Amino acid sequence: MTKRTKLLIILGGILIIAAVISVLIFIRPWKKDFKPVDSSLVIPYLKDGDIILRQGDGPWSPAFRDLSLTDKRFSHLGIVRIRDGSISVINSVGYFSNNKKGVEEVTLEEFLSVTKITGVFRANFTEGSKISYKAVEYVNCPFDWDFDLSDDSKIYCTELLYAVLKYYALENYLTTIYVEKIKKEIVPLDSISNSAAFDEIIYIK
Question: What pTM, to 2 d.p., does this model score?
Fold first, then answer.
């Protein structure tokens, strides 16, 4: 090995170390300073059956957010369930990396733990208790990677609310859009946030 080759290897190693240090310096403050929405700011406004939206930090979040044509504040949806003073959120998530896929019921704090942005919306065409009552029946349904609104045996994010409303023949309160890439009709988040059928109760950023 020549001196020139050794020098290039050393320089390359130094550059790699410098790059890693730069990344760590950039990431650490973000992780340290990241403060999710405080659930105590949201709780006073919640009612059973409310629709809670958030802007998540997952790899799918930008894609779901950008499916909305106008209001791009949100990327994920959950349905609030209040029983005996306990508040939970039913939502459908999908990950390739582990078995945590599909509809789950989590605490409000867990739902908000990945976001600095949230909004609460309330259906003005039906009782919220009907929405949460039906939503809980979908817990443990697998995530719908086919994005098929006609099949309720698998559920994706906004499909959860669509399936609930469909049970009561109220699905027309949610607009759908056709996505050419997957050749399917999907429910964008702004079909809720921009709809006259849902009242915006609170928005926190």
Answer: 0.82
CATH fit for domain 39-204, picks 3.40.50.12780, 3.90.1720.10, 2.60.120.510, 3.30.70.330 = 3.90.1720.10
Rounded distance between C-alpha atoms, residue 147 and residue 45, angstroms: 32
pLDDT (tens place) for every residue of the chain, 205 residues total: 654 444 334 444 444 443 433 443 344 344 557 789 999 999 999 999 999 999 987 767 888 898 999 999 999 999 999 999 899 999 999 875 555 679 999 999 999 999 999 999 999 999 999 999 999 999 999 999 999 999 999 999 999 999 999 999 999 999 999 999 889 999 999 999 999 999 999 999 9
Helix (H, G, I), strand (E, B) or coil at 76: strand
Comparing CA positions, the residue from 133, 116, 150 lying closest to residue 30 is: 116
What is the C-alpha separation between 186 and 192, in angstroms, rounded? 13
H or E element in which residue 89 lies: strand 86-93
Number of residues in the chain: 205
CB 117 within 8 A of CB 52: no
